Known about the structure:
The chain is α/β, with parallel strands linked by helices. The chain is about 45% helix and about 15% strand.
Amino acid sequence: MRTRMICLLVLTLLLAGCTSGGSGGAHGRITLRFQSLAWQEESVEANKELVKEWNASHPDVKVEYVQGSWDSVHDQLLTSFEGGEAPDIIHDASDDLADFAYGGYLADLTDLLPARLKSDIPQRSWRTATFGDGIYGVPFLQEPRVLIANSTWLKKAGVRIPTPEHPWTWPEFRQVTKRLSGKGKYGVAWPLKEPVSATLNLSLSAGGELFHRGADGKVTIRFAAADQVVPRTIHDQANLDHSASPTTLGSGGSDTLPGFFAGKYAMVPLGFSYRQQIAQQAPKGFHWQVLPAPAGADGLTQGVSPQTLSVAEDSPHKKEAAAFVDFLLRPENMVRLALGDWMLPTGTRALDDPALHTAEDGWATGTALAAHLSSAPAQSVRGYPEWKDKVATPAFQEYYSGAIDLGELRSRLEKDGNLVLARYQR
């Protein structure tokens, strides 16, 4: 009798272990945690609606929506990875993935993703989330940097209006901003509180690379002539031509909008998603339009770091997490996410949706630039976050303010920068 009771107790404990603990739940139900960085009201609503739709049609795999923040995502994820508490599905940006991928914190999605999703997203986008031989994120939203212009101002000045088919060159852009400036007004306001990604991504149009990978796989920094076109243009506009507002160089994008609406600046280079704020905040009677960023030797080529969805390596339910990612990024759902974030989808079928090709709010201009978007220069560079924060950001800020010259900028980017990268490549 005693032996029988012990056996029954063991069986009860085994059954309990199968139905509770970890990310499992009652009756074997799986619970996945999805950390989203959506922050705009329309975007948060779209994400939560899609989670609700998934849960309604997948009773055995529940997804919990967890709100994250772009301001602290890198440190927060690192802490959660090291503490064994990472969410199953992770929303991030591709330029933040390298250290997590090489560090073994993210699952290789190569064999987890369906053929439909793999073929729908172009290879140029997949390259932004590929590290070594593995895919560690699904790039799904992207935004080019564009010029938001006061259309009334440009029309009165009689300048040529650029289009994706006939953009301004960088020298032409500089001349146009000079023509639009004077009497306390500026042709352009560069919001460069975070100058590195904007500078490097736009520099691809001029043929800039900056990061060069050798046959041994190690990366070195070379600030060559092509890399200097964009930063020299910005520096000269601010310090020689006085066609760029010096006070906005340390500002964020949103900080420039009051002055833009007040008629202090004719144009502001911003990410495509800023159109939402402009559409909502522009005063009555203020007319604006979206223009392509200037083109260089490589045309309209521009670097981007798409938003990504990854799966944690420690997740016990990788297959189910990948299935949710596939659901979230069905073409019709990707369109909903793009519209909610005022960004462009990476998927070719979603990008063809008529809602993304309207002239209203500049959607058509953005979609015309999609084919020119490429992987950001620092995408797969280990140590990039440290290089950006400790070396590149202060160096570019001092150069744009006129505190150092181009030679000193080059020295700091190359000499100090290569010392930082070397620590990650031993």
